[in-house]
Amino acid sequence: MTDQHYENFPVASILLPPRLRQPVSIIYTFSRQADDFADEGDLDSATRLALLDGFRAELQRIAAGSEPETELFMQLAEIIAQYHLPVQLFHDLLDAFSQDVSKKRYAHFGEVMDYCRRSANPVGRLLLHLYGATDRRNLAYSDAICSSLQLINFLQDVEIDYRKDRIYLPQDEMEKYRIREDQIARADSGGAWSTFMLFQIERTRKLLQSGAPLGKILPGRIGLEMRMIIMGGESILRKLHKSRGDVFSQRPVLKTRDWAYMLYRSVLAR
Question: In the prediction, which pLDDT does 8 show?
Fold first, then answer.
């Protein structure tokens, strides 16, 4: 499943302790499949929501102590029990994916962040449960990192999301900078687009930096993995800033030299 999707940030990578690679991979597969239900193919909205409801039913079986009906959820039930993972976090992810089916615009930044709270933050919190590091401070740092990474994806994928009739950029801020939807449709980075995007980039950078201490708090290879994730976000933000937010000419991605530099910096930053 991971081979079918480009990812800017490491997932179940070799940096993680071996004991955590399988549970991280199971969580990722759950998230990836559910996200595909909302996004991929030519399914109608009712079918997409029905598929997501099927996942909800499996989670309800797990919560009730019943045996799931599919192999993925049998594996998920095992790691939920072993690591005491909150089932609600998986429901939050499904709620976000269901929202993608029906909600196409976001009136203000508060709505965007509420989406991030359910679409991204649960993954970080699940990882902290696997790590056994779920104090209040760590959870807050993780939420900041995960929300910022989700925002980075929105900034990268403005054109891709628009082709799916979605705009995650706050509507009131678009209006303030006189950004119209037809400008996105034309892939036009003129006018106030750069100023608008630089504002989005800087706000996202501050949010990412506010969670960065988690990379030094977590020990060993887990901390190294977290620092790599944070630096991946920083690298994309630098590329976005360098292009002044022109995501139409070329979507910023991480290349081999970026990964090498990130690993070097991550090792030094322990």
Answer: 45
Closest CA to 82 of 18, 122, 130, 121: 130
What parts of the chain have a pLDDT lower than 70?
1-14, 270
pLDDT, position 12? 47
Q: What is the pLDDT of residue 113?
A: 98
Measured distance CA(255)–CA(265) in Å, rounded: 15
Cα separation, 245 vs 187, in Å, equals: 12
pLDDT digits (tens, 9 = 90+) for 202-225: 999 999 999 999 999 999 888 888
**The domain at 103-270 falls in which architecture?**
Orthogonal Bundle (1.10)
Residues 48, 54, 55, CA angle at the centre, nearest 5°? 100
CA 63 to chain centroid, in Å, comes to: 25
Q: Which of 164, 162, 152 is nearest to 40 (CA)?
A: 164
Alpha helices in the chain (DSSP H): 18-39, 45-63, 71-83, 87-102, 109-119, 121-131, 136-156, 158-163, 171-176, 181-185, 193-211, 214-217, 220-242, 256-268
Question: Domain ranges in the chain?
Answer: 15-95, 103-270
Euclidean distance between CA atoms 240 and 254, whole angstroms: 12
